[in-house]
């Protein structure tokens, strides 16, 4: 007979689980991972400029032109940014906020015509990267980053 789920979870060593997944990158790898998700966000939200206008859109909006499937695919790609943020050790409240941005973009993007315009205007992936960056700048020690200090030195 199979073991009840509650017993199985009680036997799990929570610290080893969290150590392997949340914040499991070695110090210094944050910048590399962040650059990767920032590049992905730019591709999804602002890779294409419509000639003769100031309108910028990304692959997310182009995929949104394909009814239902396009928005599901772009939502799945966008979820990688959230997964990477969790792997970097972002707190649950930040992950939830990022997930809400992506869910809103995916849900409203599925509405014909209006959803396509919404995809062009609402750049959830860039918002998510900005949220993660702002949090990492404020709490850099959690991500193995040293605080950056802008200073000017004069040698005289």
Brief descriptors of the model:
156 residues, mainly alpha, 8 helices, transmembrane, membrane
Could you please describe the fold and organization of this structure?
This protein has one domain. It is 63% helix and 3% strand. Helix 5 packs antiparallel against helix 6 and helix 6 runs antiparallel to helix 7. It comes from Hyphomicrobium facile. This is DUF4112 domain-containing protein. Pfam families: DUF4112 (PF13430). InterPro entries: DUF4112 (IPR025187).
Concise account of the structure shown:
The protein is an all-alpha fold and 156 residues long.
Beta fraction of the residues?
Answer: under 5%
Stretches with pLDDT under 50, minimum 5 residues = 5-23, 149-154
- The Cα radius of gyration reads 20 Å
Number of strands: 2
Q: Kindly name the structural category.
A: mainly alpha
Largest sheet geometry: 2 strands, antiparallel
Mean pLDDT: 80
Overall tally of domains: 1
Report the principal-axis shape. globular
- In whole angstroms, how far apart are the ends? 80 Å
Order the strands across the largest sheet as they lie in space.
Answer: 1-2
Number of helices, where a helix is a run of at least 4 consecutive DSSP H or I residues: 8
Kindly report the oligomeric state of this protein: single chain
| Helical coverage, percent range | 55-70%
Order of helices and strands: HHHEEHHHHH
């Amino acid at each position: 007979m199979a073991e009840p789920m509650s017993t199985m979870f009680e036997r799990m060593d929570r610290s080893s689980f969290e150590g392997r997944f949340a914040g499991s990158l070695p110090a210094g790898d944050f910048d590399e991972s962040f650059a990767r998700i920032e590049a992905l966000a730019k591709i999804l939200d602002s890779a294409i400029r419509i000639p003769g206008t100031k309108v910028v859109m990304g692959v997310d909006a182009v995929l949104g032109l394909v009814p239902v499937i396009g928005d599901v695919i772009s939502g799945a790609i966008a979820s990688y940014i959230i997964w990477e943020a969790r792997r970097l050790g972002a707190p649950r409240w930040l992950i939830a906020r990022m997930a809400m941005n992506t869910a809103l973009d995916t849900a409203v993007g599925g509405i014909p015509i209006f959803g396509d315009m919404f995809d062009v205007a609402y750049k959830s992936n860039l918002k998510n990267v900005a949220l993660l960056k702002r949090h990492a700048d404020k709490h850099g020690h959690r991500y193995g980053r040293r605080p950056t200090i802008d200073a000017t030195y004069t040698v005289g």
